[in-house]
Amino acid sequence: MPSVHIKTYGCQMNERDSEQVAKMLGERGYRMTDNEAEADVILLNTCSVRDMAEQKAIGKMGMLRKLRRERPHLVLGYLGCMAQARGGELAKTSPFVDLVVGTHKFHRVADYVDDLVRQRLEERIDDQRLPIVDVAEEVGSQSTINGQEVAAGQCTAFVSIMQGCNMRCTFCIVPQTRGAERARSIGDIVTEVRGLADRGVREVTLLGQIVNLYGRHEFPRRDATSPFVQLLEAVSEVDGIERVRFTSPHPIGFREDLIAAFGRLPKLVEHVHLPLQSGSDRILKLMHRGYTAATFRNLVDRLRAERPGIAITTDIIVGFPGETGADYAATHALTDEVGFDNAFVFRYSPRQNTPASTLGDQVPEATKEWRNKDLLEVVNRHVARHLTSLIGQKVEILCEGASRNNPQRLSGRTRTNKIVVFEGAARHIGRIFDVRIERASSSTLYGDPAVLEDNV
């Protein structure tokens, strides 16, 4: 059977969507390959959150056109968010592309690839043909992303619980690319998690665009408990699953029941990724975020009180249209005050057809760059403080496998999502144990291998 190469841009949800497409193609006999030069089908799963991600995908497809000249049978396709946003426009600007499939139709990709490969092999396609473009919405598409392959030794997995977003933040294109909120049922999700646990997975991360607003329109509250907390409870009861994470939430979705869940669900790890975006109330209002700097700070305090030692990470945008020096100073001050365990700092990037892209007073790129660099210095100072505070301490890790940067060593994560590198053996992969931290770099902890003998 033909071979397929999938390249993924963007977030963890895109990674999960690519895994699902690979699974569906594999079930039909296609062979997945990491080598695009030997592939018969190359699919780019795209991102639209920032312009750079779109340009990378477009540039990559342009390079693949050269490969197509050498291998006329090659099938090329765009999937995902950029495909959803641009649709037929991509077919016009990249006329050599065979397939453009949006976010509602990942489950259709295998059918389309089958048709295109068959026509290629029968030499019934030439460069004058019309590409397949499918970006139409489809009711129930959220339930098609379920079940996934688990590699040997794999002990963590992402589980998509919903699609879409209703928040309409003025800088964000996601509601256009992912559609409205649509949730899978709790029973369907738990069935998938049980299957993962049966195949050796010990930690799951629940994925959603605004994950903590899961099911708010589809499912009822029970005993003052939101659908999302009901889901956390149900997943926590799955035998074999030892850790539960979720990403990415919205501050307005943290009601009392969710905050309390961090104190009463031991499998729910002590880590929250809590996007701030700005520390200026004026900018937060322009962003349509629905909270103030004070309510965000109060939420952090409540989470830390409920679960002492909880790690708080965040996303921050600098250079939003109209951001003054005083607005940026407020972001700088709040970032320093909270002392995040880590943060992703982004320079604002205008996205087509979003309200923010039409605002006046766009911030110069040089100013964005300076603010980005300045804020990262604050973030990195607190990251170093959090990491060095663990030197000499024993921390619980889940060993995930070989270290990305040094395959001779192993790597795991703490419950607070910090990476620990240490010496060990294959038998340690997939197991949970303590390691004593001996030193820290700017982003990584290093453990004492002698401690392993006391634990495993």
Describe this structure in words.
The chain is α/β, with parallel strands linked by helices. It has three domains: 3-134, Methylthiotransferase, N-terminal domain (Rossmann fold), CATH 3.40.50.12160; 141-386, Alpha-Beta Horseshoe (pyruvate-formate lyase- activating enzyme), CATH 3.80.30.20; 394-454, OB fold (Dihydrolipoamide Acetyltransferase, E2P), CATH 2.40.50. Helix content is 34%, strand content 20%. It has 13 helices and 19 strands. The strands form five sheets. The chain has a six-stranded parallel sheet with strand order 2-1-3-4-5-6, sandwiched between helices. Helix 7 (186-198) runs parallel beside helix 8 (227-236). The two termini are 43 Å apart.
Short description:
The protein is an alpha/beta fold. Helices cover 34% and strands 20% of the residues. The longest helix is centred in the C-terminal third of the chain and has 24 residues.
CATH top level of the largest domain? Alpha Beta
| Strand line-up across the major sheet | 2-1-3-4-5-6
Runs in which pLDDT lies below 50 for 5 or more consecutive residues are none
Number of discrete helical segments? 13
Average per-residue pLDDT, rounded, comes to 91
Radius of gyration using CA atoms only? 23 Å
CATH superfamily of the largest domain: tm_1862 like domain
Number of domains: 3
In percent terms, what proportion of residues is strand? 15-25%
Element layout with pairings:
Layout: E1 3-8, H1 12-27, E2 31-32, E3 41-46, H2 51-70, E4 75-80, H3 81-86, H4 88-93, E5 99-101, H5 109-121, E6 132-134, E7 156-160, E8 162-163, H6 174-178, E9 182-183, H7 186-198, E10 203-207, H8 227-236, E11 243-247, H9 256-264, E12 271-273, H10 281-287, H11 293-306, E13 311-318, H12 325-338, E14 342-347, H13 365-388, E15 394-402, E16 410-414, E17 419-422, E18 432-440, E19 445-448
